[in-house]
Specification:
CATH architecture of the domain at 121-275 in chain A: Beta Barrel
CATH class of the domain at 121-275 in chain A: Mainly Beta
Strand content of chain B: under 5%
Shape of chain A: globular
Strand order of the largest sheet of chain A: 1-2-5-4-3-12
Low-confidence stretches of chain B: 1-11
CATH superfamily of the domain at 121-275 in chain A: Rod shape-determining protein MreC, domain 1
Distance between the termini of chain A: 60 Å
Structural class of chain A: alpha+beta
Mean pLDDT of chain A: 84
Radius of gyration of chain A: 25 Å
Order of helices and strands of chain A: HHHEEEEEEEEEEEEH
Shape of chain B: globular
Number of domains of chain B: 1
Helix content of chain B: 55-70%
Structural class of chain B: mainly alpha
CATH topology of the domain at 121-275 in chain A: Thrombin, subunit H
Largest sheet of chain A: 6 strands, antiparallel, barrel
Mean pLDDT of chain B: 87
Low-confidence stretches of chain A: 290-300
Order of helices and strands of chain B: HHHHHHHHH
Number of strands of chain B: 0
Oligomer: heterodimer
Helix content of chain A: 25-40%
Distance between the termini of chain B: 32 Å
Strand content of chain A: 15-25%
Chain lengths: ~300, ~180
């Protein structure tokens, strides 16, 4: 290893020097991305370059799934058709009563002089592939900022909330699933209106309901829906069902595990809901109050 | 025995010179393979084709490839995976360094005995990614995280066989 090349061969900088250069460059990028999210522009540019390649690769996958679905058995289709007809029948009944309820609700809100709640617009999308990063839970969909998919928008399937758009590329978007370790969703228990927050665990099919006191009124099988207080997720989307509760008086909080209502692995189709209108700013007086005690603490 | 020390050198066939375009084509193919929309246990088993390809060229043709293509492909992988920007770039740079530093040693061995070398380098690459994520607050995903490296190392003979197909001389030298 330790030898100097004869000077008449052009070798350029040494191996160690080149390695250090690229390692330093990578560390700078990593730090800028993890701490300050400075790299989104560059990331989008590379995403645009990768998009045609991604599409090329999707062709054989689509062909394979097309061939697979062509050979679906007759009995399976019949069963599915029967199920869909039955579901459609039930839903039609619900829809009729719901229209009546919407009309009644609007009327009551007008009577009470309250702001009307507007249902968010939505766009259908298809899951392109599951995120390959083993440290996070993400899926990539085939709609992006050119289809007005915005960062922060909620994504649902037919049974409940899936996650939130974490990055919007021009033609694709990255969705952080609610099971991702860094995702938190403000929820409300349907039975009694109790508010809480659900955190991802990093595993499929498990969510944590954290910071609930041991004596909190939560029961096995309680349905949790979004509470809408964060201004990100519209209120009332099904999120999870309480699966197990461990109440141990030795700990300040109960250990509550939930199963997500939506099934990302079941379907390819998802719905991206448009972002809600931004919440009004905090009144300035309240903000000052918030800041003051921090200052005094620092001084003291 | 095959693959023990110098006796291997005499049996090594002489390959055609590698054109830069061929390196580019193999790297592009590896990128496409990495982008395949896999899920479930297939994804858990899938080796990092880009790392394997870079390693092949780094060990066998260290003059045809440098740090820059490895680093740029690392950035592309980071964007496609939605991971931290630069983690694979860093890991691939260190991987290329070990390939360049070890290429004379690894070339002495037969294909079967190269597998442990490749395995160690691939594991080192994954450990760097793991360390970066741990520093950024990630959690150890489990032992199966290292399965792609083992699969990749086991695929090393296949990689070598496939990559040398277009480089074998088509004419039989005895014909002349």
């Amino acid at each position: 290893m330790e030898y100097t090349p004869p000077p008449f061969f052009k070798r350029g900088p040494s191996l160690i020097a080149r390695l250090s250069f690229f390692v330093l460059l990578s560390l700078v990028l990593l730090y800028a991305d993890a701490r300050f999210h400075y790299m989104e522009g560059l990331r989008k540019a590379i995403g645009v370059v990768l998009y045609p390649l991604q599409r090329i690769v999707d062709v054989p996958a689509e062909v394979a799934s097309g061939i697979g679905s062509f050979f679906v058995s007759q009995s399976y289709l019949q069963r599915e058709n029967e199920r869909l007809v039955r579901e459609n029948f039930l839903n039609a009944g619900l829809l009729q009563t719901q229209q009546e309820l919407i009309a009644e609700n609007r009327h009551l809100r007008q009577l009470l002089d309250m702001k009307e709640r507007v249902g968010p617009a939505s766009a259908a999308a298809e899951i392109l592939y599951f995120g390959r990063d083993p440290f996070s839970r993400k899926v990539i969909i085939d709609r992006g900022s050119s289809n007005k998919v915005e960062e922060g928008a909620a994504v649902v399937d037919d049974t409940g909330l899936i996650g939130q758009v974490s990055r919007a590329f021009p033609w694709t978007a990255e969705i952080a699933l609610i099971t991702d370790r860094e995702q938190a969703v403000p929820v409300q228990v349907v039975r009694n209106g109790l508010r809480a927050a659900v955190f991802g665990t990093g595993y499929d099919g498990a969510l944590d309901l954290r910071f609930m006191p041991v004596n909190a009124d939560i029961e096995h099988g309680d349905v949790l829906v979004t509470s809408g207080i964060d201004g990100v997720y519209p209120a009332g989307l099904p999120v999870a069902v309480v699966a197990s509760i461990e109440r141990n008086a030795a700990y300040p909080f109960a250990r509550i595990t939930c199963t997500p209502a939506a099934g990302v692995n079941r379907h390819r189709q998802v719905l991206v809901l448009a972002r809600l209108a931004p919440l009004p700013e905090y009144p300035p007086a309240a903000q000052q109050k918030k800041v003051k005690p921090r200052k005094s603490r620092r001084d003291g | 025995m095959r693959g023990s020390g110098f006796s291997n050198l005499s049996t090594q066939e002489i390959l055609l010179p590698v054109r830069p375009l061929y390196v580019v084509v193999t790297l592009a193919a590896a990128l496409l393979l990495n982008l395949l929309p896999l899920a479930g246990w297939v994804l858990a088993l899938r080796p990092d084709f880009i790392a394997l390809t870079l390693l092949y060229w780094g060990i066998n043709q260290p003059r045809k490839i440098g740090f820059l293509p490895a680093w740029l492909l690392g950035l592309a992988v980071d964007v496609a995976e939605g991971s931290l920007f630069g983690q694979h770039a860093l890991a691939y740079a260190v991987m290329m360094f070990s390939a360049f530093a070890l290429h004379r040693r690894v070339a002495m061995f037969g294909v079967r005995h190269q597998i442990p070398h490749v395995l160690v380098i691939l594991l080192l690459m994954q450990v760097i990614v793991l360390a970066v994520r741990a520093a950024a607050g990630g959690e150890y995903p489990g032992w199966w995280y290292f399965v792609p490296s083992v699969v990749g190392a086991l695929l090393w003979p296949v990689t070598r066989f496939l990559f040398t197909i277009p480089l074998r001389s088509r004419r039989d030298p005895d014909d002349v």
